[in-house]
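Dig into these lines:

——
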Amino acid sequence: MKKDKKEKKKVGIWLDHTVAHLIKLKKEKMVVENVFSGVESQLRYPGETATGTKLGKTRSTNKEHSKHEREQNQLHDYYKVLTGIIKKYDTIYLFGPSTAKKELMNWIRDKKQISGKTFILDSAEELTFNQMVAKVKATLGEG
């Protein structure tokens, strides 16, 4: 007997600003893929010293703007990669502890290849790998 409808592809993505864990449930197996953003906290390049002007007990620096721009560019590249992955799925479950899931949703809001997809957003703290898988299974079903 033929299936009338193509089976919907589902993926769960636990993400923060540094890494996304893609959890794909398929009939008998589970596939996990990690995507790293490249964003690091307290990023310091070799030879970089504290620069800026001392203003009383604080230090003012003109490098803050360039560091912020560098981080934003890394996040945009990260969201582009995730968007390319997401467009292959019909139902996407985004969960994690940070604002990254909402930022990703804002990033892809106007992308035509993403229209018609079902998104589920959920807050979740730091989870073990098994907890992530259990949460995806509970939300999306067995695949």
User: Anything to note?
Assistant: Strands lie at 10-15, 19-26, 29-36, 53-55, 58-60, 91-96, 118-123. The chain has one domain: 10-39+62-140. The longest strand covers residues 19-26. The helical segments are 63-86, 100-108, 129-140.
